[in-house]
Amino acid sequence: MRRKVIAGNWKMNMLPNETIEFIEKFSPLVKDTENEVILCVPYTDLFYALLNVQGTNIKIGAQNMHYEEKGAYTGEVSAKMLKSIGVEYVIIGHSERRQYFNETDETVNKKIKTAFENELKPIVCVGETLEEKEANKTEKIITEQVELALEGLSNEQVEKTIIAYEPIWAIGTGKTATAEDANNSIKAIRNKIAEIYGENVAEKVIIQYGGSVKSSNAKELFEMSDIDGGLVGGASLKVEEFEKIVNFNK
Ligand code: PGA
Q1: Is 90 a residue whose pLDDT tops 90?
Q2: What is the C-alpha to C-alpha distance for residues 130 and 136, in angstroms, rounded to an integer?
Q3: Which residues pair with 229 in a beta bridge?
Q4: For labelling, which of 12, 71, 106, 165 has a CA lying 20 to 30 Å from the CA of 173?
């Protein structure tokens, strides 16, 4: 049985003092969950978050990194820098980064490889636009994105990759994919992984759903056969709301 992994994506929100306060309130509420809990916080909050989750079951992730090891890349942060302070996860290829910061399937693939070389676990985002959905291209788009993202990885690395299926039209819009549609898209991704890396690998890969997940729809989504938890944006900024999402099966 695959575990459920629930990750908050704070995006460009929360100051260090807010991060500390959040973790203080949130950690006792999720301490008994069997689900994996991750907070992906802004760079400036990482160190405070890492100090404050010590002794809890909460893991910390970043929201981006550069694919080069080091060098003249003003404003960028490397995988080694993240690893050096104790970061465990990193979101790669979020649709906002693809849309506003020119990330492509190629840079996503490079970043995943660099993440693994530095022992960071990538959470890789894929998803279709509304236009693509309406043209019935969802499956084609997302399976292609997954194939290109994972190109050149070993079976072992693919097994450790977390994929977040996030339909772009559902992010921050209040519109959620139906549990059935989300499950079918995730099944299509799993089948593509099986085709390339084998059934055994595909059965182990964690594939999350993301896009307007909230406490009122988390249970229905996360109980579907192929949905292994979620990547949660807006609803992860509120302790009471995110706690309910993490504890969806309690
Ligand atoms: P949302 O964002 O939950 O606010 O829709 C999800 C995400 O972008 O990861």
Answers
A1: yes
A2: 10
A3: 5
A4: 106
Predicted TM-score of the model (pTM): 0.98
- Give Cα 102 distance to the centre of its chain: 19
Among candidate residues 187, 194, 227, the one with its CA nearest the CA of residue 211: 227
Q: 114-141 burial, b for 16+ CB within 10 Å, e for fewer?
A: bbbebebbbbbbbbbbeebbeeeebbeb
Question: Closest ligand 1 atom, CA of 91?
Answer: 9
Contact 182, 209 (CB under 8 A): yes
Tokens of 104: 């492509």
Give the CA angle between residues 12, 17, 21 to the nearest 5°.
Answer: 100
Q: Which of 156, 59, 73 is nearest to 107 (CA)?
A: 73
Q: What is the pLDDT of residues 7-42, one digit of tens each?
A: 999 999 999 999 999 999 999 999 999 999 999 999
How large a percentage of the chain has pLDDT more than 90? Answer: 97
Distance CA 43, CA 147 (A): 29
Report the residue among 231, 236, 244 best suited for mutation to probe ligand 1: largest number of ligand atoms under 8 A from its CB: 231
Q: Is the CB of 126 under 6 A from ligand 1?
A: no
Ligand 1 close to Cβ of residue 212 (< 6 A): yes
The pLDDT assigned to 1 comes to 81
| pLDDT tens-digit readout, 133-181 | 999 999 999 999 999 999 999 999 999 999 999 999 999 998 888 999 9
